[in-house]
Amino acid sequence: METMATLDAPTVAEPAMTGAPTPKSYLSEAERAEILAEGEVEDLYLEESSAARDAGDMDACWAWLARAEHPAHSLVRLKRRHGASFIRKWGFNDTLARAKYGDDWLEKEYDLYGQITG
Question: Considering Cα of 18, then 24, then 26, then 30, what sign does the dihedral take?
Fold first, then answer.
């Protein structure tokens, strides 16, 4: 994870992993700067996602959430609920899922506990 020290606050040009344009921000520059000063860029992604959801912008909500690094089991749950195409569409950061389950993790089936079933 990147820390705020690696970023030029208050603006953030992220993420490098998808090359996707930055989603609409519903936070002020001051709010963004405060979040980055207190924590990691992952915190900013989650706060941006929450603010977008509060504003009713689910596209921005998912786009911000996709930028965060999620535990492998969380991505498996997302895949079970929304499907592999959803993960691909939003460009979720799947670094940890690839490390745990392999590069073809989206092609596999999992049980409720994240164990490969097929």
Answer: positive
